[in-house]
Amino acid sequence: MTKTEITYNLPQKVGDYYIREANSIDHCIRANWPDYPDEYVLFNSSSRFLKFEEQINKFRDKITDNNIILSVLSSNGILVGHFSILQIDWKEKKIGNMGIRIHPNYCNKGVGSLILEWISNFFHSHGFLQIKLDVLSSNKRAIRCYEKVGFRSIENVIEKSESFTIMQKIL
Question: Which residues, other chains included, contact 63 with Cβ-Cβ below 8 Å and sequence gap of 6+?
């Protein structure tokens, strides 16, 4: 299994949305989403402060890495979500980390659960056995979302003075 074989199966329709591989324009759109509420300000994109060319180069660095898959969720041409599948172990069929961002206007509407269910089912259908992720321990909304779709907390770690919960889902 390779990155190309995985992304060949995109786009896919999921409910009222489409999931497809991300492109450089998506990266720039994501960088300019409106701010999250104060308690989630940490999730505002730092790329918004970069020049356009720097944003594109940052995207290219990620998209060319064979152990990263960048995808987006859209509806009627609106970028609703962005997710990164990271630290892919192709031999062991495990995903070592993943990141998800939902457009601030679409939070608390079931979109995160929808993406997580799709990611789990999609990668399971391609032979993957496990997904791990880290989440800020203070981000109770995200932790509830992950637990709702079958992720379980396996450890807590401190990194750069922040507490993270490591979660895992066996597929």
Answer: 22, 24, 70
